[in-house]
Predict the 3D structure of the following.
Amino acid sequence: MNAKELLDEYTNNLAGIDLLNGERQAMVDKVITPEIKARLAEIDEEIDPIIEKVNSRNQELIKLIKAEVIAAGQTISGDHHQAVYSKARVSWDTKGLDGYAVAHPEILVFRSEGNPSVSLKVRSTR
């Protein structure tokens, strides 16, 4: 199989999983009585605002933690999580340096190139 065929199989598998999840939910909906559905909705109404409030606080905490770690200039560990400090990355104008290397090939000893990588993304259908 070529890469396009493999990608198409992958896409079909994802669509199949979505269909199966839909079928599962339809089966669950048939088993759950209207009374149970109403009670589940009440539970969601009670718990969702609390979760939303905690998530909002966590977003604030992330900002504060990042500021503290950057100010400290080091990784900080809690009991269960770690805020890992990474020093600023240095970047170079690769196009400019490649052009410079044509006239000054001695700088090429300082050049290294990693392996290519692949990430799968959902294509826009627009």
